[in-house]
Each structure stands twice: as structure tokens, then as C-alpha cells.
Amino acid sequence: MNREMTTTPFGRRPMSYAMLDAQTEVKNCDVNVVADKWKLFRMITEARPLLGISDRALAVLHALLSFHKPNELDSTANLIVFPSNRELSLRCHGMAPVTLRRHLASLVEAGMIIRRDSPNGKRYVRRDQEGELKTAFGFDLLPLVVKAIEYEQLAATIRAEDLARRMLREQVSLHRRDIAKMIIFAEEQAFEGPWDALSERFMPLARPLLRGLDRVGLEALAVSLADLRADVEKLLEFNNNSAKSTASDVQNERHIQNQNSDSKFDFEPGFRKDQGADRGDHPDWNDEADTKELLSSHQPVRSGLKPPKAFPLGLVLKACPDIIDYALGGINSWSDLIQTANLVRVTLGISPDAWNQAMEIFGPNEAAIVVSAILQKGESILSPGGYLRALTDKARAGSFSSGPLLMGLLRASTIKHEVEAG
């Protein structure tokens, strides 16, 4: 078909500016371009957020590319594919005809393909006596080749943005981890200073989930955490210098550390016994215990711990994915989950005493599961520390197990993904 001819859609489909722009761009392209169709598709997939097309539309585009037999898209060749609706639907894994037409229209509006409709609206090809293609009616893939450089630039922009966000998330995670550990250390050593005020500054900075923040939000959060970290480090340095000065003045005295968990640094201000309690009745979870998991957390391991529940780690992370944002190196074992939960409990305002009691009653693995579940419930729990104490008391009385809590979160996560998938 003559590319210099402006084509219009068959039937009731109207002409649009997007169709005119795509055809004009194809006409004005005087450079021969050759692109690998699958590499080009990968770039388009990366650039999808900037192109304004859905993942289902990309599936339709993938199917259209599969009907072009050569791997290379040459701007000098005929790039019109003419599959029937039935064949196109099959290659789109049985997509409904109405859905298929909607996504084809979105690809046309995005200027990624051009409709070359025949007089009767059918898609077909005419060949000469030698079998060479003479005229074809269907979907022209030429705009993909013409815009190959543009798609590559958009994909590079997305990659650069993702890299910047990953680096910011890493920086924020480091700040959160280090600030939490420094506050824990200062609390254990009973250092002098406005630690209550610092902890109040830290709480709102530790709660937001990183996956929900854009680059601007991450930058602002990183700056606020860096300022707080500088103040914490200065206060620690002052106490450290004071301790060294005291040790040099009294060389024969040994420095005694205050390891009392009930210090003035209160992670649960104004806590009442009934605050945050789970008043629902949950049936016990009757899984077999798994005693082979080792604990490598910096929290003290007490004798007489209950064996952990036999929940697969992958199931826990699927039900409580938000805790992954707080793990710097990922969560690949129960030890990683326990260490991450110990950091998260600081951001949630759970005191060391409440955490240690949960470790003793639940066992380290299940205590980490409960903290992960509390984090996943988010703002629906007004007092995470009080909620954990209430659950610990119920577990001590034998009326609570983390199984129903975990299964409820898993069902909620599954329903959410089904709704988003549409």
C-alpha cells in the first residue's frame, strides 16, 4: 500500500488527531531504520508509564509483532500484519473481542500502529503472479520503527528514574536502620539528652512505606532523616566523650552499663492495658512446630522459647509484603525477618520490654510474624505497642495464635490483587 496516502478507519470509527500525527510522521521519515522487534518491544515495555498505555495493550502489541515473521523491523519493507480477530485473540491468550478492540484502539491513539483498512474493513493481502506481496490491509507497524529512538530515550529516562529512586530508598533505609539502632543503644546505656524528643521526630519519618513515595517524597524524607541523624550522632558523640572523660578521671572504676529496658525512653506513651487490644476471638492454628530454624538476631535469646510455627517464609512475606521495604539486604531467611522486625518495632513505637515479652511467649519467628502483621495493618492500629502487648497476653493465656491473623492478611492481599488486575 502507498504510504503517502492518508488512510481513514473503516465503518463508524472516526478519524483523530493521533491517527493524522502518526501517518504524517511516517510520511516525513526519510531515514532507513532497522530495529530488532523484541528489543524494541522491551524498550516500549520499560517506557510504558510515559506512553500512557496499559499492560493489556502491550500484550496485544506483542501478539501483533509475532505475526511479523522476521526478527528485524525494516522501515523500507512492508510492515503490515493482517491477522484475523480469532488468531489475534488466540495469541492474546483468549482475550475477549470487545477487550481486544479497545486495546487496539489505544495502540492506534498512542501512535504506535496505523490502521490500513480495506474497502470492506477486512484484513487481507494481495500478491502478484510471482507470489510477492503487492497490497496488504491490516495494522502497520512502521510507526514503531520510526519512533525507535524516541522509545529508547523514554526507556533510558525511566531507568534513570528507577535507579535514582532505588538509591534514595537505600539511603532512607540506611538512615532508618542506623537511627533506630543508635536510639536503642542510647536507651540501653541511659545516655543523657532529649531522647524522647528525638524519638518523637523519628516516628513520623519511620512510618511511611517507601514503595508509595515518588522521587520528590523520597528526597524530602532522606533530607529529614539526615538532619535527625546528625542530631542523634552529635548527642551520642557528646555522651561518648563524657564517658571517656569519666573513665580517665576514675581509672580504677569499671563502667557499669544500664541495661534496664524500662528506662525513661518510652516507646508507648500513655499506654493502657485495654488500648489497641484485639477483642475478636480467633481459633488456634494447629500447624506443627519447626524447631530447626536458627536465630541470629542481636536481641538476647532466652531459654524456654516456644518453637516457631511452621509457616513458610514465602507465605509470611506474601501476606505482609510491607516489611520488605525495611530490609536493606532483602529477607531471605527467618533470621533476616527477625532482625528486620526488631528494627520495625522501633518505628512502630513498640518498647524493648514489649518486644522481649513477645519473643519469650511467641518465640522469635512468630513474634516477627506478629510485628510484620501489625506493620501491614498500618494506621488501623492506633497503638502498635499496646496491640502487641494485648496479643502477647492472649497468647500467654492460650487464646491467640498468629495463624488466623496471617491468613486474614493473605486473603485481603489476594482480593486486592484480584481487584487491581480487574
UniProtKB/TrEMBL annotation:
Pfam families in the cross-refs: RP-C, RP-C_C
Superkingdom of origin: Bacteria
Domain called Plasmid replication protein C C-terminal: residue spans: 312-411
Region feature Disordered, mapped onto this chain: 243-288
Biased composition (Basic and acidic residues): 263-288
Domain Plasmid replication protein C N-terminal: 13-185
InterPro entries: RepABC_RepC, RepC_C, RepC_N, WH-like_DNA-bd_sf, WH_DNA-bd_sf
Name of this protein: Replication initiation protein RepC
Organism: Phyllobacterium ifriqiyense
